[in-house]
Amino acid sequence: xxxxxxxxxxxxxxxxxxxxxxxxxxxxxxxxxxxxxxxxxxxxxxxxxxxxxxxxxxxxxxxxxxxxxxxxxxxxxxxxxxxxxxxxxxxxxxxxxxxxxxxxxxxxxxxxxxxxxxxxxxxxxxxxxxxxxxxxxxxxxxxxxxxxxxxxxxxxxxxxxxxxxxxxxxxxxxxx
Length: 176
What we know:
Elements: H1 8-32, H2 38-62, H3 67-88, H4 98-123, H5 129-137, H6 140-162, H7 164-174
């Protein structure tokens, strides 16, 4: 993503899409063949988070988005993952909502849209120049990423609310 050759952004898009597809397919196969393990329940969301955070962090290094947006996404993901790890290590099971899966899908979509924008911009295809100018002028990528951060925080709040009884039970049993 940080290289200067013409097709570098296109290559970054391709690598990211392959990583996202293989991650989704891996989860699908685990469910289909009933190969779900405690390690997989932890590592699969962790892989999602690493994939998403590294892309958003790269976008902020390049200057497409601000670091505070990435900070919000990282904080939510670290907080929820850390809380789930601490509580599950004590034998409690957290409920993961479909909303969190939608959050990941939305994050991946925004990243892919951003990479498509960057790939087209890197190839300098004149037919796309008016569209690229509109995207830049109205800061569409920035706004979509900011909305993604807000949605990410919202899913974190819903996650805590949904698991509040489990968190309370964990706190009661571990405060003695």
